[in-house]
Amino acid sequence: MTQWAEEVDPVHGDFRVQLRVEKVLFERQTEHQHILLIENRTYGRVLLFDGIAQVAENDEFIYHEMLAHVPVLAHGSVRSVLVIGGGDGGAIEELFKHADIERVDLVEIDGTVVELSKQHLRSVCGASFEDPRLRLTIGDGVEFVADSKNLYDLILVDSNDPTGETNILYSEPFYRHCARRLAPGGVLVTQNALPFFDRDWLRKPITRLRKIFADVGCYQVAVPSFYGGFMAFSWASEDASLRQADGDLLEARFRKADLHTRYYTPAIHRAAFALPPYVSGMLA
Description:
The chain is α/β, with parallel strands linked by helices. The protein has two domains: 3-56, Spermidine Synthase, Chain: A, domain 2 (Roll); 60-283, Vaccinia Virus protein VP39 (Rossmann fold, 3-Layer(aba) Sandwich). It is built from eleven helices and 13 strands. The chain is globular and about 55 Å long.
């Protein structure tokens, strides 16, 4: 009998998507969420939290390259990074491709995600968890940011969608704590799910960020395993020039970093900030 993993629209319940399960590799109910890792012929290994796909090994490079390389190359001199969430290791694997990055603090609330990724998702995380530049904390990212005294050139919030206990990672108090932890000229990037389904997933965080940062915007990327069109990343910084980095500068930095990417290019970087009216209207 064919087994299917079903993903239900978490906002309105208006659609369902099914993934054929070739094999269940891992399943556990933790303190924070139900975790399921399956194999699928199209997407490879797919990790789901509470029935929602979080990462698929055959298209994760799209999401993680755009999450990491866009702010790193726009900034130009990132040395220290804080990642909230991202226990699958995909974001830090991309970050560690930049030799100039000296330290990455990863704060993941669910240690089970890290352990299963090291065991089953090496195609996603590679050897990133063994990189000596990593400082791994299993704990609450909100508390970490509030209590930390460190300053970071880049903060990435690689969290679940803004539902349930994750909502606090989209709140104004959390953003204010992030702003205090950014070094001068630093950048905050957060994932904001699929605005087509719920405009508040993008509009409300952008409104909150504008109360705190001088320059706020967003960029988009289409990830096949995230159903519903383009997903959005919020961008916030005190330096408006970073979001406007020109193509020649990005190309020079890209070549210097000697990156070998499957999705990111400097041209795609700039194009990702060109928003269709239905999205730009949410930011007005």
